[in-house]
Amino acid sequence: MKILKIALSTLLTDVLRPAGYHVNAQGAGNLETEGNPTITLKECTIAGGCTSSQAKVTLDANWRHIHVRGNYENCYTGNKWGGPHCSSGDPEKCAKNCVLEQISEEKYKNTYGIKQLANGFRINFVTGHQFGTNVGGRLYVLDGDDKYKMWHLKNREFAVDIDVSELQCGMNGALYFVEMDELGGKNLGDNQAGAKYGTGYCDAQCPHDMKFISGEANIIDWKPNEKDFSGNMGIGKYGSCCAEMDIWEANSMATAYTPHPCDLGGNGQKPAQYKCEGIDCGDTDKGQRYKGVCDKDGCDINPYRMGNKKFYGRGDEFEINTLKPMTVVTQFLTTDGTDDGELSEIRRFYVQDGNVIPSPKSTILSKNTDSITDGFCKNKKNLFGDINDFKKKGGNAEMGNSLDRGHVLALSLWDDVEVNMLWLDSAFPLDKPATDPGVKRGECPGGETSTPRYVRDNYPNGGVIFQNAAIGEIGSTLIKSPTSSPTRAPCALCASQPNKNQPECTGQSETRCKQMAENENKCMWNECPPTKPPVQNKTPSPTASPIARPKIPCCSCNYRDCRDGWCSESKQNCKVCGNVWMPAGSQSGCTDQFNECTGKKASCCNGLTCVGTTSFSQCIVSKKCIDDKDFKFKNKTCKALTKTPAKIKKYCKKKVNGKRVLDYCPDCGQCSA
Question: Residue 100: in which H helix or E strand, if any?
Fold first, then answer.
């Protein structure tokens, strides 16, 4: 549950302008030359690995200096609008006569605390400078100079390198996607600045602290935020709403990832990026949190909150040691494995010290899970006693609709003047016992040590590092690009056509694969190249004793042949790729998955069973009755139930805790029919 992402803008005083200085309406300042930091972007495929490029990032408009067009006077000072054009409360007049300024390379670093690193950058927490103090920052990835890079995440995975070792309780180094306009709202109203100047922000909290929305100053009913002791922040009449996908909200004590769908952007709905007022904003302080257009709680997975108290933290005793950098990989899976399918599941795993570490399963739900599905969200919210606004706003499917339209990547560091980040790393809400399920989110004590005043005074040099943002096919972002001659691709298997993502091809038989290629314009059968006959040695050599060659474990997509590359480097990698791990290595002289075994029942590779009739049979994955440790019906396990054939149908129709026996025992003989 998130409360509000607050823009902690810098305190700036007047600076000198050169003679002849001129700008257009809201935002096209040219006193400085923009000196953007950069981040390495990687586009990845399973076949070709990753290719890298550099992308600029730009600072959000709320942090930038706002001044009168043509002279030196501020339009906004501290937490108040002012000057000759903004004191009257006229939004259009203020926007037409005030501009946003560019930021030089030197000021990115020394005024805003954003330091360029190899492959990325670091955001400092508190940065003092000659004009005042800057707290945190929020940046967006650009495509060129004048528009944001649009990301499409469905049926893809996103990976990024992160270091949170310097982030303490009460801080949040966040990376997330929001459905902002590609041009930053340029030419909307009086906005002549656009993405280059970091305009057009929105998120699922419908923030009221945005100084400009839709090309107008958010000046009506503007008032200082009484909770902000630094005197920088204000709140206006309007909010800026859109769907949000939180990849990473974290400090060194706790982490969460969360989708936030909205009732926006579809047929008959309000625009995808919506300037809200009144109830539509869903303001918490007015008791309207669940009446607005966006799901402000979202459906989060915080490992600590889900019962895994030793998974993430500061030190080697945790599976993820936050004192070290890590790679965070998030996968967006669809119902049919295609880009057009409905978003059905969001999965997470980590890589640290070369080890792939899966997101842990919940230990507190009756049906344990380690990914975000609609079912998980329902079960979690029922247990925690939370309102399921995620379902009301359309769940994963609606989140997927938003991702289809394209999102902008935001990277930020902030503290929380509203509730001290307790929703991330401590006990929240405060009116519930900390022992209730879902209340405790981390080991931070809360209280004074989580307040912005305390963390700013004691940890001003805290910071977060973001590097190497990668996107690609499921299972592709960790594959190393070839540095010499490429490894020969696996053969005698069905694969996607070149430069296409077609997961439905994986595992198809040769016959079916060629049918799909001919009739459906998808898939291709990779033939093995003919092997050259061995050269005959004219001189007989003495017969040697056979040498036992070691079997090398590997990952396989057909239970016979090994895959090359990253998938076969470890069992965990293989799981991520969605294949089967073969401890004894490749098999030979057997029939692989889905190929015909008619009349040859013993020919299937280990792990497969020949199933069918006397006229046609094929090798498929062996079905075994696996007992669910949480299941028992009339004191009988899954295996015990299926040993009584006469009662199988009766048992299958019975329900336990509202679920059919079939749901607990899916692979148990006739019970699965």
Answer: strand 98-100
Distance between CA atoms of 1 and 665, rounded to whole angstroms?
A: 34
DSSP string, 115-168: EEETTEEEEESEEEETTEEEE-EEEEEBSSSSSBPPB--TTEEEEEEEE-TT--
Reported as type and span, the H/E element at residue 212 is strand 212-213
Catalytic residue among 34, 101, 157, 249: 249
Quote the tokens at residue 406: 């394209």
The catalytically annotated residue of 101, 157, 216, 244 is 244
Topology of the domain covering 38-472: 1,4-Beta-D-Glucan Cellobiohydrolase I; Chain A (2.70.100)
Six-digit token string for 408: 């902008």
Contact predicate 528/510, CB 8 Å: no
- 135, 257 contact by CB (below 8 A): no
- In tens, the pLDDT along 330-363 reads 999 999 999 999 999 999 999 999 999 999 999 9
- pTM higher than 0.70 for the full model? yes
The tens digit of pLDDT for each residue in 137-149 reads 999 999 999 999 9
Is 241 within 8 Å of 262 (Cβ atoms)? yes
Distance CA 210, CA 217 (A): 9
CA 460 to chain centre: 28
244 is catalytic: yes
Comparing 40-49, 82-91, 407-416, 530-539, the range with the smallest average pLDDT is 530-539
For this structure, is 43 an active site residue?
A: no
Q: What stretch(es) of the chain map to CATH 2.70.100.10?
A: 38-472
